[in-house]
Specification:
The chain has about 160 residues and is an alpha/beta fold. The chain has a single domain (about 5-160), classed as Rossmann fold (3-Layer(aba) Sandwich), CATH 3.40.50. It has four helices and seven strands. Strands 2-3-4-1-5-6-7 form a seven-stranded mixed sheet, sandwiched between helices. Helix 2 (about 65-80) packs parallel to helix 3 (about 100-110). It starts with a strand and ends with a helix. The structure holds guanosine-5'-diphosphate and magnesium ion. Guanosine-5'-diphosphate binds near residues 11, 14, 15 and 146. This is GTPase Der. GTPase that plays an essential role in the late steps of ribosome biogenesis.
Amino acid sequence: ARPVIAIVGRPNVGKSTIFNRVVGDRLAIVEDKPGVTRDRLYSPGEWNGRAFSIVDTGGIEIDGEDEIMKSVRMQAELAIEEADVIIFMCDAKSGVTHADDEVAQMLFRSHKPVVLAVNKVDNQGRMDEIYEFYGLGFGTPIAVSGSHGLGIGDMLDAAIEKL
Ligand code: GDP
Ligand code: MG
């Protein structure tokens, strides 16, 4: 089976935008298991000749601080179970939030390989916005921009290196 790369992070950081950049026009598969796992999209992907399966998590829109945190935690747990590498997605515009810290702790305790990606770095002038993300403890953050298609190759290089 293909190794699994899962994209994890709180809502609105740009996980689905990045997922779509990686899968291009391949058709993503909505997992049809009942319950929370339906909230995930799977697609084959390939980079530098390496085939993998990539997972987008947390697609269902939910309201309320508590509900959002519950869902983020559940998605992180599922990713830890099924993924070979986790792409932990954060948002340069919002900076590090409490929810990011919580996800970081879960991922840290799991000992799974993690690639830290900071999205919404839409131009080089924004590079200074990524430094605070070193504090999450996953090494050098990789700056990406889903909407501009920047840094995606670097992010996949880092993920494949950890497979
Ligand atoms: P998800 O909830 O983590 O899946 O996030 P989405 O992919 O749905 O994106 C959330 C919002 O962030 C949308 O309004 C996107 O258009 C926006 N967004 C995504 N990527 C970028 C980016 O690289 N730069 C900027 N400025 N906005 C982005
Ligand atoms: Mg999404």
